[in-house]
Amino acid sequence: MNPGDFHGSTQKELLKKDRPLSSKYADLFVGKKGLWALFKFEFINLFITPVPGAFGLTLRKVFYPRLLKKVGKGVVFGRNVTLRHPHKIVIGDNTFIDDYAVLDAKGEANEGIRIGANVYIGRDTILSCKEGSIDVGDYSNISANCSLLSETEIRIGKYCFLAGECYLVAGGNHNFTDTSKPMMFQPSFAKGGIKIDEDVWLGAGVIVLDGIAIGRGSVVGAGAVVAASLPEYSYALGNRALRIRDRRELIKTESV
Fold first, then answer.
1. Is beta strand 188-189 parallel, antiparallel or unpaired with respect to 173-174?
2. Do residues 173 and 151 touch, judged by C-beta distance below 8 A?
3. Neighbours of 208 (CB within 10 A)
4. Which residues pair with 153 in a beta bridge?
5. Is 22 helix (H, G, I), strand (E, B) or coil?
6. Which residues, listed in sequence order, are joined to residue 102 by a DSSP beta bridge?
7. How far is it, in rounded angstroms, from Cα 78 to Cα 213?
8. pLDDT recorded at residue 149
9. Which of 64, 70, 147, 214 is the most buried (most CB within 10 A)?
């Protein structure tokens, strides 16, 4: 099993045996070389990130801009927000990042995370890059417990609303044609990322798959799986119905 078969994952880095743990930690979390970058990251996470109440909000308003690439005026950071590769994170004016959110801009050559102005990022929501980028437009609202995972690109337009527990994944498609090898060690591939236009509402628990575009003004009902692109002003409802086939027969059929 070759750790290099993982694409842009934390697991890939941790499986490498030729580097000390401190070096792996710096690459995964800090993203910048040098003792000063590491010290500043560690100091803020140890003494500033967990502080509760108004005092904690004030401290993070002062210290977080020293880690992030760019922070606008009036930005509020809740308690225990996780930052990874913070030098690739841009946040616009008057945006609110709630407690326990994760902003993970991890990658060697990616753009990272850009959050516009007047945006709300809910409690326990995860924005995670694995060599990809995430762009959230002005005035958008991403509710609690959402996950946006990008190996390529996720772009959300202005005035969008994602209800709780939405899941967007751009990339992460694993080949499974070789039944002699675990799927996690087979090549992964992307289908073009996710693009959501302005003024879109995704109901609670919506899943958006890689390669999908959702047009302006669309509404997607709770619990739907968006597996095909939607034109402007769509009103899409549905449930999760499984179609069960034998994986081995599927491989034979598609290879003919």
1. antiparallel
2. no
3. 26
4. 133
5. helix
6. 82, 126
7. 31
8. 97
9. 214
- 8 A C-beta contact, residue 99 and residue 80: yes
> What does the DSSP assignment read for 175-235?
P---TTS-GGGSPEE----EEE-SS-EE-TT-EE-TT-EE-TT-EE-TT-EE-S-B-TT-E
Q: Are strands 219-220 and 201-202 parallel, antiparallel or unpaired?
A: parallel
Using the structure block, give the residue that is written with the tokens 């929501």: 125
* pLDDT for 7: 45
Q: Which residues of the chain have pLDDT under 70?
A: 1-19, 240-247, 250-256
Distance CA 186, CA 188 (A): 7
Give residue 225's pLDDT.
93
Question: What is 3-255's CATH topology?
Answer: UDP N-Acetylglucosamine Acyltransferase; domain 1 (2.160.10)
Dist CA 46 CA 44 (whole Å): 6
Amino acid identity for residue 26 in this structure: A
d(CA 125, CA 154): 15
pLDDT digits (tens, 9 = 90+) for 179-205: 888 887 888 788 999 999 999 999 999
Q: Token pair 């762009």 is at which residue? A: 135
Please tell me the predicted confidence (pLDDT) of residue 254: 63
Give CA–CA dist 90/228, Å, rounded. Answer: 30
- Domain spans in the chain, listed from the N-terminal domain onward: 3-255
- Residue 1 has a pLDDT of 36
Task: Please tell me the distance from the alpha carbon of residue 158 to that of residue 193, in angstroms, as a whole number.
Answer: 18
Q: Residue 15 burial (CB < 10 Å; 0-12/13-18/19+)?
A: middle
Q: What is the pLDDT of residue 14?
A: 55
Which bin fits 102, alpha (ψ -120 to 50), beta or left (φ > 0)? beta
